[in-house]
């Protein structure tokens, strides 16, 4: 079976199956076909993320989230024209159909381009003291703590490099020389690494004001103490498709109140909910910013990421939310570090 044939599914298929296809088939798209094998819809990772934000039941049929007006080309269209369609429409995968709208193949932008290197800059925040992990961080900065066979930050950079990203800035402060000595120029890691040296702690966003040049493309910012299995191309595609100034990765977080919650109105009990569960989206510490966002920062001035995002909202800038459905763990405490060590082989063995 050819790879594109694995992306085909029927309208009654559950959404979770479409997610499995998008993640495993390699083409990052699922194609919905009718009983006559004609293309009737497409599902991309962006469609899934939007469904998550809306709280759509993932056990429901794919017809709930599919694009019912899919973009496609006919089989007699040249590869040059296919590439032009992809660039004009801002898409990375395009079904090719015959005159009866039956799928004959799927073209991808990567297969049509010679250069697979991503132009987007990646900024990794690696300057924190890791106070909650003391004494482990007494003689070692948190990003260099080992999880599995290598430091956390090494795993992060490997993940980006494996997806075609080569251009990095590491923001360093606490024990900066240890981070610089470990990664050097980045050549041993398949990367081009430069450093932003904070003379004082500038918060989780302030170091961005010290970038020596304005990026030409939207750039990714990520905390240097995260383990996450993120498809960063999906993240960028989502950012581009929403025309946002900034995109924030979010995780769903739930907690259960350990008591019966009583709703009272005018001294009268209106409802009692026994141990209700509340759900929220929380900041996952991974972002995409347009270069213009840097105009909202004062050079060499302390600024936390939450403050930057609030300022962007005050300036009427557009911020989109990208819900993570993949493995993610913030290593902020000793028990998180132990959990990461136990889960590393399962999630990062390949």
Description of the molecule:
It is a single chain. The chain is of the alpha/beta class and about 350 residues long. The protein has two domains: about 110 residues, CBS-domain; about 230 residues, Spore Coat Polysaccharide Biosynthesis Protein SpsA, Chain A (Alpha-Beta Complex), CATH 3.90.550.10. The chain contains nine helices and 19 strands. The chain has a seven-stranded mixed β-sheet with strand order 11-10-7-12-17-14-18, with helices on both faces. Strand 4, helix 3 and strand 5 form a beta-alpha-beta unit. The model has no long low-confidence stretch (mean pLDDT about 90).
Keywords:
Spore Coat Polysaccharide Biosynthesis Protein SpsA, Chain A; alpha/beta; globular; CBS-domain; 350 residues; three-stranded mixed beta sheet; 9 helices
CATH superfamily of the largest domain, called what?
Spore Coat Polysaccharide Biosynthesis Protein SpsA, Chain A
Annotation field: number of helices:
9
Helix content range:
25-40%
Integer average pLDDT = 91
CATH architecture of the largest domain: Alpha-Beta Complex
End-to-end Cα distance, whole Å, is 24 Å
Strand content: 25-35%
CATH topology of the largest domain, anyone?
Answer: Spore Coat Polysaccharide Biosynthesis Protein SpsA, Chain A
Helix and strand sequence: EHEEHEHEEHEEEHEHEEEHEEEEHEEH
Which class of secondary structure composition applies to the elements? alpha/beta
CATH domain class of the largest domain: Alpha Beta
Q: Looking at the chains present, what oligomeric state does this protein adopt?
A: single chain
From the alpha carbons, calculate the radius of gyration and give it in angstroms. Answer: 23 Å
The total number of structural domains is: 2
Overall geometry comes to globular
Q: Report the biggest beta sheet as strand number plus sense, adding barrel if it closes.
A: 7 strands, mixed
In order across it, which strands form the biggest sheet? 11-10-7-12-17-14-18
């Amino acid at each position: 079976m050819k790879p594109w044939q694995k992306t085909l599914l029927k309208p009654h298929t559950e959404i979770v199956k479409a997610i499995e296809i998008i993640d495993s088939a390699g083409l990052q798209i699922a194609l919905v076909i009718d009983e006559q094998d004609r293309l009737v819809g497409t599902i991309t990772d962006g469609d899934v993320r939007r469904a998550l934000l809306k709280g759509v039941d993932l056990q429901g049929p794919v017809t709930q989230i599919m694009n019912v007006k899919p973009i496609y080309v006919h089989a007699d269209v040249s590869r040059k024209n296919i590439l032009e369609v992809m660039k004009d429409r801002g898409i990375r995968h395009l079904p090719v159909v015959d005159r009866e709208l039956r799928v004959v193949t799927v073209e991808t932008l990567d297969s049509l381009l010679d250069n697979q290197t991503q132009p987007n800059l990646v900024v990794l925040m690696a300057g924190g003291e890791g106070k909650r992990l003391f004494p482990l961080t007494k003689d070692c900065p948190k990003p260099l703590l080992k999880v599995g066979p290598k430091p956390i930050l090494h795993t992060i950079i490997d993940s980006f490099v494996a997806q075609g990203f080569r251009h990095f800035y590491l923001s360093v402060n606490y024990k900066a020389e240890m981070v610089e000595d470990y990664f050097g120029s980045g050549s041993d890691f398949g990367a081009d690494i430069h450093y932003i040296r904070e003379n004082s702690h500038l918060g989780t966003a302030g170091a961005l004001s010290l970038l020596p040049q304005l990026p030409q493309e939207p750039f990714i910012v990520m905390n240097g103490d995260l383990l996450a299995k993120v498809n960063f191309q999906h993240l960028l595609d989502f950012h581009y498709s929403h025309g946002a100034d900034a995109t924030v990765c979010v995780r769903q977080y739930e907690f259960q109140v350990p008591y019966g919650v009583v709703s009272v109105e005018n001294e009268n009990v209106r409802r009692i909910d026994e141990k209700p569960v509340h759900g929220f989206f929380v900041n996952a510490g991974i972002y995409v910013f347009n270069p213009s966002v840097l105009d909202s920062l004062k050079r060499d001035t302390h600024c936390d990421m939450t403050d930057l995002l609030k300022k962007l909202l005050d300036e009427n800038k557009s911020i989109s939310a990208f819900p993570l459905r993949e493995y993610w763990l913030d290593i902020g405490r000793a028990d998180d570090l132990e959990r990461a060590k136990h889960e590393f082989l399962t999630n990062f063995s390949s």
